[in-house]
Amino acid sequence: MKLKNWALLLAFGLILSVLAACGGGSSEKPSDNAGKGTEGTATEGENVLNFVNGDTIPSMDPSLATDEYGFQFLGTTMEGLYRLGENAQIQEGIAIDHTVSDDGLTWTFNLREDAKWSNGDPVTANDFVYAWQRAVNPDTGSEYGPYMMNGVIKNATAISTGEAPVEDLGVKADGDYTLVVELENPTAYFESLTTFGTFLPLNQKFVEEQGDKFATSSDTLLANGPFILKDWESTSNSWNLVKNDDYWDADTVQLDKMTYEVVKKPQTGVDLYEAGTVDRAPLSSDLVDQYATHEDYTVEPQTAMYFLKMNETRNEALANTNIRAAISRAFDKEAIVNEILNNGSLVANGILPSDFSRMPEDSPEAGTDFREVNGDLVTYDVDAALEYWNKGLEELGTDAVELELLGDDGESAKVMGEYLSNQLSTTLPGLTVTLKNVPFKQRLDLDSNMDYDLLISGWGPDYLDPYTFLNLFLTDGDNNKMGYSNPKYDELINATTTELATDNAARYENFLEAEKVLFEDAAIAPIYQKAVAQLVSPKVQGVIVNPFGATYEYKWASVGSAE
Amino acid sequence: MFRYILQRLFYMLITLFIIATVTFFMMKMLPGSPLSAEDKLSEEQKAIVLEKYGLNDPVPVQYLRYMGGLVKGDLGVSFAFDNTPVTKILMDRMGPSLQLGFQSLLIGSFIGIILGLIAAVFRNGAIDYTSTIIAVLGSSIPNFVFAGILQYVFAVRLEWFPVALWGGFEYSILPTIALMIFPMATAARFIRTEMVDVLNSNFILTARAKGISEVGVVFKHGLRNGLIPLITVIGPMAVSMMTGSMVIEQIFAIPGIGEQFVTSVTLNDYPTIMGTTLLFAFLFVVIILIIDLLYGLIDPRIRVSGGNS
């Protein structure tokens, strides 16, 4: 017995030393493989780019995808009716062109006949019918399907609430290559909606064959776009995109392959960039100082807007327009973008981002940026803030106001909250701001229950039209949740989807007017427009940054010289 | 012995049952829903989607449904990774964490034991102080600091190892070193303290008097007794090492389970939270059992079944 015990102990010790030896022994040769991920570039004539991705891809199912990465890789591997090109110009996709009926309600798309799925099946009108029906079918459990289609496609709302059969959806195939879409209201921006992930086609036979396994790995996916996703499972931390030779426009596609590795820490991404393993690395604000002078440093403006919501229902002070006007002028936005964010973000003085929406062709300012036309609607101005503040306090008959500022626990959210509460309480005498930081999910809860005074909120556009921002503040809108209501504002915005729906110039006049009303009422206090600072290798050429949907467009990308 | 193990397995089941129950109800108190676009949806639409996943039912009903599945070995389907079974997530993510945990625990405690032994044998000498300093530094400096330094020096500057990512064995070296510091320091401290005690006890004197060589005394009589307290702490430590470290996994971009666990909590991915918690709990109780059995192996005085009566 005793001997046996010793033998065991000895064996244990042996395992230990063997493992220790392994650890020591193999440490001599790993540099052979240090360049993993760049191996593709070594092959003569192969055009390969290597990227990091901020997280895994949670879903490649167009009906279920809700996040940045899902839409990114859907956009790269699939193609809908149209595709966004440079400057968000609509480019041919599966649809060659379309006609719109005079009432703006019926859109007839002519589809190309040479588009194929990666299993060889042709892409037909029925693929769109099936996909769109699936997206609004309550049995699918889609979040974005009803969000994007309700109120747009005929009968979508009734179907998504189970009150009508999916066959009633306003999308029909007329033969294999003609798609007829009936809309609920004339929708000026419908063309841009068709580029969005939720509107991608699906091969019915394939999806039904795969059942629950559909879109959980590369083997259970079909591509009809420029690239094919390889070596991917839903939990994968690395995957590849390879050129799809069966894509109808494969001649245009120059990249042979893109590799992706999930890297969540920006410092790690930068280290990999410096080691030459990846060709692009995002920078967090603490890394910007160190790399702002790097020759590959670039700032990429985006279209998400961040602003303070001011809840008019919980604290009587915030029901006062002068108080809100004071708050929206009382903090230094310049300091926020330069000191706290430090990544090229822009000061926001309106709710529409700059470089997002241009005035339509038949308007007097045709082609001018919406933001430029409407200018700065609310700026940092201490004197004006104090004037509004004193007027407001007088109206309220008080000299002290206590407000709670709610933020989440995101990267710079805490510092941002501290800064804002400090600025507000020092600029506005008698104002006490208490800061409350909660996890993101709880913030959403408190937001939808309107259980806050001030809230740091953000919004990214879902299609290419000012309506995606301005509908947020309609009376009782699903995302208003701050008790803002102005009949004039509602009238202006609602007219853009009803009587003015087919007159784009008039719609934009209404949008301009409505945005002014929004800030005359001081409904919200804009803070900044997001940008992303990154290191981008000169190898990465021709990548288009989209204002919504898939962040990057690689169809026209190429590999430049490394030096 | 066999009966004892059976009995312990029964208790393990009860423990797991209690953990599952408590976790389930605590998890349901988390704010928010698992919906990923909940800030964009109307209340009505939210309710429709939640209905589809059975999340509108009363919590006790959801609990019974979950436990029903659990008994059949069904951990459910993740909410965050659409249509992906939780078992698949656990299996995919457990590998790297297990490997790193195992490597760092074994190498770390092995080196730690050696350090502790040397320190005890040559106590109060230069070697002792050096080893003590290493041990104190190792247990007081957080491993992510080590990880950052290791990554910068050996990967970015010297380019001996890959900077990050997960590939072959060489990708595991730096994270293993970063992770092994803690078990190494712990082992060194425990072994030194205990060995100093043991080497001064009477039976060691007896052993020496019998003329056993010094090496024999230290390894055969000393170490065997000195190991007991270490084994007590090594169990929980082993579990925490094998269930992954979020920080280390993020620094080296490793697809491990520790990181996945934290992510699933922030996303309210209920099935994955339950799955990971239960997996960690299972590992814990199993390792505790192994440790209890090891006691007997190392020290016959604590033999569990009461000898072979």
TrEMBL record, chain A:
One Gene Ontology term from the biological process aspect of the record: peptide transport
Span of domain Solute-binding protein family: 90-480
An example Gene Ontology molecular-function term: peptide transmembrane transporter activity
Signal peptide: 1-20
InterPro entries hit by this protein: Peptide/Ni-bd, SBP_5, SBP_5_CS, SBP_5_dom
Highest taxon of the lineage: Bacteria
Gene3D superfamilies: Dipeptide-binding Protein, Domain 1 (3.90.76.10), Dipeptide-binding Protein, Domain 3 (3.10.105.10), Periplasmic binding protein-like II (3.40.190.10)
Annotated region (Disordered), positions in chain: 26-45
Xref: PANTHER family: PERIPLASMIC BINDING COMPONENT OF ABC TRANSPORTER (PTHR30290), PERIPLASMIC OLIGOPEPTIDE-BINDING PROTEIN-RELATED (PTHR30290:SF10)
Name of the protein: Peptide ABC transporter substrate-binding protein
From TrEMBL, chain B:
Superkingdom field: Bacteria
Keyword Cell membrane: yes
Keyword field contains Plastid: no
Main location: membrane
InterPro entries on file: BPD_transp_1_N (IPR045621), MetI-like (IPR000515), MetI-like_sf (IPR035906)
Transmembrane segments: 9-27, 100-122, 134-154, 160-182, 227-253, 273-295
Topology relative to the membrane: Multi-pass membrane protein
Gene3D superfamilies in alphabetical order: MetI-like (1.10.3720.10)
Location in the cell: Cell membrane
Cellular component, GO annotation: plasma membrane
Domain ABC transmembrane type-1 intervals: 94-295
Keywords associated with the record: Cell membrane, Membrane, Transmembrane, Transmembrane helix, Transport
A single BP term in Gene Ontology: transmembrane transport
Protein family according to the UniProt entry: Belongs to the binding-protein-dependent transport system permease family.
Name of the protein: Peptide ABC transporter permease
